[in-house]
Amino acid sequence: MITEEMVIACCTDLAGKVRGKAFPATQFETRMKRGIGWTPTNVQITCFDTIAESPFGSLGDLVLIPDQAARVRVALGDDAPTEHFVLGDIYHTDGRPWEFCTRSILKGALDRLDRVAGLTLFGAFEHEFQFRDGAPRIGSAYTANGFRAERRLAQTLVAAMRTAGLEPDTFMKEFGAAQYEVTMEPSRGIAIADQSTIVCELVRLVANASGKEVTFTPIRDPAGIGNGLHIHLSFLDGEKPATWDPSGKHELAKPAGQFIAGILKYLDAIVAITAPSVVSYFRLTPHRWSAAFNNLGFRDREASIRICPVSDLSDVSKAAQFNFEFRAADATASPHLQLAAIVHAGVQGIEEELPTPDVTTDDLSLLNPSSLLARGSVRLPKSLPEALDCMLGSPTVIGWFPAGFADTYAKHKKGEMAFLEGRSREEICGLYEQVY
User: Fold this and answer.
1) Which of the four, 12, 171, 235, 346, has the lowest number of CB atoms within 10 Å?
2) DSSP state for residue 43 in the 8-state scheme
3) 251 — alpha (psi -120 to 50), left (phi > 0) or beta?
4) Are both 208 and 84 inside the same structural domain?
């Protein structure tokens, strides 16, 4: 059979999906100049393949330009087609960045961080996922035998990650039924979100090549265990770690403390972006080891932001180890858009010179709203409509994004919710399991 290798030029969108067009690999150099055609209303395609209300209608033309730095080519062998894709940026045909390109929005947020604080973001996403096929093995949580069940996939995935330019960290059998976690070493700036996108695509690639199917959905069963997305972040000042200060509150450098304070202040508004599905809010409830309040915790896996541990046994310096983890997130979002919202909120905290928050050490779910408010905490939105109302009710948050973005984003999510009207929680979970 005669075949010709093709490249998928793609982007992440408001639905958290990776969409694109393929072209012959021999055209890569020319496509880096002229791109591929794109349509504005594509941004309103929901995760269920419906089209939400669009301000663009059938009008307009755009181009998606591949970025060589985000190019992936992996050959699995065994007669499998070579996987070849590249992330890129969407532009107007006159060369201006398109206002709804998630990658361009993140670049704007990172530029703001550099302009305001002179810092570079350094971090990595941790992903949890589940296998959809096969009976789950009872008694396999965190076990060596649970790892062995997917050793071949894990080792193929690690090789694929390394080939794609990612530095693998760990792979483990997680607590949930047929649930696993993959982590990677941190990277800088835009690559943090790019590599999150890449690793998810590689997990799907390797699983499919093995005849298996995975899901990154936040929750498969309303009564079950959810798949979290943990975003580890720190800062560099040039090449120097800039998050740890042994004399700072909680050992946080002043800008880091202000950054965290900004995230927590605006978290109830940005959670519509970081956890943007209906089922996200089935998971973001107390006692699920997720996040339900805008609190900072010290090694607390129920806090929205957790100060992560460092080890005196490590060969890595404490300053380089020190980081914090954002936990009010899941894989139904574009990682580029998630990170943009987090960075904008953090930089807002730096600009407002907010004080480093106190650490919570008790169960906030036992406090009433007035007691929470007295401590500077709130319960996060309990549903996607509530989260969208919080976002649309914040002129500050709306102002971080291009004109019209917040309204268009809200219409996108309302289109997603319209598809689910009249369905039970179990049916809704099943639909999200299929599409993520």
Assistant:
1) 171
2) G
3) left
4) no
Residues 33-66, buried b or exposed e (16+ Cβ, 10 A)? eebbebebebbbbbbeeeebebeeeeeeebbbbb
d(CA 365, CA 68): 47
The tens digit of pLDDT for each residue in 289-318 reads 889 999 999 878 889 999 998 998 999 999
Tens digits of residue pLDDT in 312-330: 899 999 999 999 999 999 9
- The total of structural domains in the chain comes to 2
| Residue carrying the six token digits 């193929």 | 156
Cα(306)–Cα(231) distance, integer angstroms: 10
- Point out the domain boundary residue: 74, 98, 122: 98
Q: Which domain holds residue 336?
A: 105-435
34 shares its domain with 161: no
How far is 233 from 240, CA to CA, in rounded Å? 15
Are 51 and 146 in a shared domain? no
- What the block records as the tokens of 393 is 């009710």
pLDDT per position as a tens digit, 106-161? 999 999 999 999 999 999 999 999 999 877 788 989 999 999 999 999 999 999 99
